[in-house]
Every structure is written in C-alpha cells, then in structure tokens.
Amino acid sequence: MASTTISGVNTGLNITNIVETMVQAEKAPKADQLSKLQTKTTAQISGLGSLKSGIASLQTVLKDLNSTALFQKRTAVSSDSTLVAASATTTAASGTYKISVGQLATASTVATSAVAKDQTFGTGNSLTLSVGNTALPTVKLPADKAATLSDVRDAINSQLKDSGVSATIVTNPSDGQSRLMLTSTKTGSGNDITLDTGGNSDLEKLAIPTKGNGSASDVKYIAMASNAKFSVNGLDLESATNSVENAIDGVTLTLTAPTSVSATANGVTSSVDKPITLTVDQDKAGVKGTIKKFVDAYNALVDTTSNLTQVTKVGDDKQPIAAALVGDAGVRQILSTMRSELGRAADGDGPVRILADIGITTDKNGKLAIDDTKLTKALDTNYAAVGNLFTGDAGLMSRLNTKLDTYTQTGGVLESRLNGLNNTIKSIDKQNESLTLRTDQLRTRLLAQFNAMDSLVGQLNSTASSLASSLANLPGVVKS
After folding, report:
1. Rounded to whole angstroms, how far apart are CA atoms 59 and 17?
2. Domain boundaries, the chain
3. Which of 127, 314, 350, 454 is most buried (most C-beta within 10 Å)?
4. Which residues contact 221 (CB under 8 A, 6 or more apart)?
C-alpha cells in the first residue's frame, strides 16, 4: 500500500523510522509465531513423506515375497555354460543330469559352380531356392538388362530377405572365377539349400541340385544341414536346433559346443567326451535374496522412524535439536503394529511358524538380523514350509501389508494427516496475507497521525512566530 513519507521538518523527528519501528514491533510477535508454525509444519510434511516412502518401499518387497511363483521357480545350473546353458520352468523336476554333446545342429552353406566374374545370365529370368522340401518364393531377375552375378545376389537378398537365406559372391584371386555362395539359418537334417533354374540355359551354371543328384559336379557343398546329437544321462537324442525344449521336462537346453576334449596318451591324441553336469532345483538363491531384501527394507524403515523421532544433543551450551516427528504417537504405532505381526506365529504345527525358525531375529535396536546358516538350512530342509510362512492370505507378508495399507492407502492415516498439515500451510499463508494487510493499514494510519501532528506543530510554530512579531511591534514595548 502506498504511504506518504514525512520529513518531520516541523518537529525535527525521523517520522519514517519511528513509524516503521512501531509497525515492526506490532507485527513481529505474530510473524514470528507464524514463521515457527510454518517451519514446524513443513518439517512434519517432509517427515511424513519420508515415512510414507519408506513404508511403500517395504510394501513393494512384501508383495514380491508374498508370491507363490517365487517359491515355484526352478533354476538350471550348468557346470559349463559355455558348452551347454539351460533354463527351467516351474514344471521342471529337481534332479541332476549328465549332458554330452556330440555335434551341434548346423545349417546349409553351398556355392554354385564357378563362372567368370563378368558373366551375364540373360534377361527376365527367374530361379527358385528351396530349403529342404520347402520352396521359397520365386526370385525374379532384371527384365530390362542382362543379369550379372551381382544382380542375382541382390535379387535373392532383397526378395528373400525374410526367408533365412542370404547370398554373397566369393571370387578366387588366382583365376578370377566367382561363385554365388548361399547360406541358410535353418538347421537340422534335410534342410539343405537347392537352387532350381527351371531348365533355363542362361542360368544353368547357377543350378544347385541335391547333393549326389544332378550333373553340377562343380557345386561346392560347404556345410550340410544336420541335427544336433547329444545325450541325457547316456540316452542318445537328436534335435533339429541347438535350442532344445523339453528333452528334460520343463527344461530348455542351449547347446553351444561339443563336450569332447582332446587327450593325449602314449603320443596319440584322441577326442574324449567330458559331459557337463546340469542341476535342476528350486530357486533357493532367488528366495534367499528376496528375504534379504525384505529384511533390508524393514531395517531401512526402522532407521527412517528413528531419524524422524530422535532428539540430537549438539553441545552442553546449545539447545538439543528435535526431529520432525518427535513424540509422534502415529510413528510409534506403526512400529508396534509391525513388531506385533513379526512375532505372531503362523497357524498350525509345522516346522516353520515364526521368523526365528528360519534364522531371522530382532536385535537390541529393533532391527532384523539374519543367521545365514540357519536360513540356508531351513530352505534346504523345509522349503515348502518357508513358502507357507511368507505367502498366502494368512501369510506373514499379507498380514504385514494389510496393516500398513491402513497408513498408505488413499484416504489412509498418512494421507489424512498430510492433508491436515497442507491445510495448516494454507491457513498460515492466509494469516500472513492478513497480517501484511493490517500492518500496511497501521503504517498508513500512523503516518497520517504523525503527518497531522507535524502539520499542527508547524501551524503552532507559525502562530507563535506571528504572535511574537505582533507583540514586538506594539507601542511602549521595550525590546531587550
């Protein structure tokens, strides 16, 4: 609000400073009160936000551990994954298997008869490639010019780009003769590449018949398509691909290399099979890791609540610093609720009813501690019982999550408190606005009053001067 600056020329007073001092003296107590309330409320909002975040992080882990799928997972561990890798589904039975790989599944690679590098093959012709008994779409060669070997290659690669067959040109430096080399990605016996020119004489030298059939004696059968040959516990098996599903029920094998190794005896080197060991079992490591995540998340929440409710001593001559939620009954209730559930035994009389049965106990600081040896033993000997402790509607994770939902869900305890605190902040803002308005009005009123006083003093001074002058001019008045 605009105000008139008074110089105080008639009174000799610094009226602006006097008025401002009076205004601040009137404003300061209420402003200080609102500032402290705002600081405290803001700290509480931040504290409750940290608490809510910590609870949400714990709930995420609770849901992960309350999963029957977690306890149904299986692992397939190879003694040498560079030779045979594996994965397992929940249907895989636990067991140990010896896997030998004699040969990998291969795909066909062939090369046409040699031709001059600049040879052409007529115009408007076509050819058909087949992979095993499957004929691929007909490849059409240029109709507007005589096709070169490069044109044939490009036509195959562009028109059969999604078929798994590719073409390239290989040239012999010694004689300059070139061949069209064709490679397939389809493995398995009987999936060899053939190229049918339809009897076209222009394309005759590019024909690739089935090996052992036809007159194209200069064709090079570089690699024949073949099955993978392997054994499981001595039982010989074959697969058209190197990714083998359900040779062992629920297990996918990825064959990468033969399991044979070279051995030399009496100066003679021979190939000796060295099978890998494949172990299929429950995913105990995954379960243990998730249990440790639960313990870590719980302990992190305990740390959060401690930091939010502690009083820190900063020195003998200083006031202790209180955290944002010191004395907050709601925080104590959260910890009390969780500890009550953690100590509650599961129904029944099984070997695992409480966390202590699997090596998880509470230390003097209220945190959870894990005895890794005891947890490992529990998973090895009572795997299903450990799963029952954590999972299901009556399981520990579900019970904890239900209790915590009271605080974190929409309309829950924490949201209600945060809404109340945010309303307090809004009220403080309005009170600050009102205080500013009142102090502006006070400033204007005081300035007007001092202005009137200064004017009055000026008028009195003027009257006094006029009166003194008149008296001095009266006859008979002796001037001193």
Report:
1. 60
2. 1-73+283-455, 74-104+227-282, 107-223
3. 127
4. 110, 192, 211
